[in-house]
Write a structure and sequence with these properties.
heterodimer; A: 334 residues; alpha/beta; Rossmann fold; Alpha-Beta Plaits; 2 domains; 6-stranded mixed sheet; 4-stranded antiparallel sheet; 12 helices; 35% helix; B: 265 residues; mainly alpha; globular
Amino acid sequence: MAESVPEARISVRGLRKVYKVHKRPPGLMAAARSVFRRKYEEVVAVGGIDFEIAPGERVGFLGPNGAGKTTTLKVLAGLLHPTAGEVRVAGFVPQKRASAFLERVTLVMGQKQQLMWDLPPSETFEMNRAIYGIPQKTYDQTLKELTDLLELGPLVGKPTRQLSLGERMKCELAAALLHRPDVLFLDEPTIGLDVSMQSTIRTFIREYNERFRATIMLTSHYMEDVEALCPRVVVIHQGRLIHDGPLAALVQAMRPDKRLVIRLSKEVSAADLATLGSVVKHEGLGVTLSVPRIHLADTLARAAAMPIVDLSVDDPPLEDVMRDLFARQGTAAV
Amino acid sequence: MLRRAITAWPTLLRVGFAEAVAYRAEFLVWILSTTMPFVMLALMSSVASEGKIEGFDQKDITAYYLATFLTRTLTGAWVVWEMTQEIRQGTMALRLLRPIHPFVSYASSNLAALPLRGMLAVPLLVVMLVVTPQGLTHDIRFLAAAVLAIAFAWALNFLIMACIGCVAFYAESATSLFEVWLGVWMILSGYLLPLALFPAPVRAVNEYLPFRLMVDLPVSLMLGRLDGQAALTGLATQAVWIAGVGTLAMVLWRSGIRRYQAFGG
């Protein structure tokens, strides 16, 4: 686990969140019985986790569906009261929802929107200006910057309902950042967006982080988001923390192999390729090999004898790393 | 937070008005759903044609139901439906992220529809003056008291709805409870029938309930059916109820928000 972060912007100690859920079997009789007698069961969404995040860090918060990621983000943003544990964000106790705290944080949820559906985004922006008490001059300047960075120009005057998903997400980001928060909780900010729009959003998030030294916690099922933005990852599974550290260390710990992606000038037999490493993919002149890291230099030297026109060395896909990590759970934590 | 709410209020009202205009179709449907006083006007007018009912002649009945419709138009709120939906679907989260109390933003969006309602209320007032010129009080003090009573009635209605809306934190829906409330309100507020027509014991009990303060009081002030003492007592009673229900709404909110589960991703 990560060491204690000096002057942590986010500090989580023993965070636990338990939901009480009404449960009944299917069928008419069960429905009728539930009118008179209801059975509730406790579901542990977050089962006691600890981590700290320093100012300006970009951290990927990963885990399978139902792992407790969104619940944790909601607690950190002050929306949910923790069942137990101690949480501090920018020095505040989030669930008290002090104005000074709310002015410093934002939570962007890819599946929920704050833009008013039948009005142009400019109206939501104006409302946020009033609610956050942003001075007009600062507002104009910030809005101009956000408009330039996110290329919002023609969008802000159209009714929200007439915008595409990607356009709406860009406007959502602008609405969430007008007050220049320095702690950003981003919950699936690129969900449903096309590749080009995902890339635009990633570039914007990185620029915002570098410009304002904002602390960013990001959840995403797109590993490209995590690879592009998060040097550190915190991984949660069934409400428990199973990894906290550099992304590279996670990859190395889970998959001590490298990928050699080779383009050949002529066919080579599978048996010859197997002398270099295990063949992951072999389609015509394109080959992907898996090679132990410790044998990489030796393998590259031997590969020189092959009719190679192009070669690159990559880490295994992060999706594979995560799949392996979650598959191992139940046996041991990383 | 209070100072922020005050400075943000004009913008919230302006944006709320823009939203109300965008939802003009819903507004018209809401107006159509509040035409019960006209149905009652037709019924009671017919009955009153055969003689006075508890001091109400046909012109009094006309004035009463026009004033009732006017009061209903100007005091309507819908916060209970907004709260129920947002709590159930988890979208309340977006309100909670903003440094302004959700009651303030609900109140501003509810009040922002007032100019639209005014477009209906002003012609109605003209109709009242033409149809029953003697029905409406000509005493400016009572008219001013009626305006204040309408404002108080709106606040009371809004806060009661907010209390019922908070039930959605505990139960799966608050709207069923509100339907029950609405049914009792229609009877005991004077919305369907003038309270003078009710048996004395019912009227006596009703004195201790808030319903009559939301329709009967403003209407009685508009029609000049109260003396100065009763007018002041009525306004003071409204203020006390607003303070009490407002406090209850805050208590329910604070308690409810601890249980909020922000469902839905």
